[in-house]
Specification:
Elements (H helix, E strand, L loop, with lengths): L9 H4 L5 E2 L6 E2 L26 H10 L4
């Protein structure tokens, strides 16, 4: 009989997500940009939902900052 062995996939098992540096616009997987040492951010938009839980707060912030 053969036994199935599960091999760990390092990319799937770790929380590695693409990030972008707001200063130099370079993509990386690290929390700090390797070029300019700025903190990186998530470049992906939030998931779309018809039930926008935080829309009210987002509109208030935009109104305060005069972006609307």
């Amino acid at each position: 009989m053969f036994r199935i062995m599960r091999v760990k996939d390092p990319l799937r098992d770790h929380d590695m997500k693409m990030k972008i540096c707001p200063e130099c616009k370079k993509y990386t997987l690290k929390d700090l940009c390797p070029l300019c040492n700025a903190r990186t951010v998530n470049p992906h938009p939030p998931k779309f939902s018809l039930e926008d839980k935080y829309g009210k707060y987002r509109r208030l912030i935009k109104k305060e900052r005069e972006l609307l």
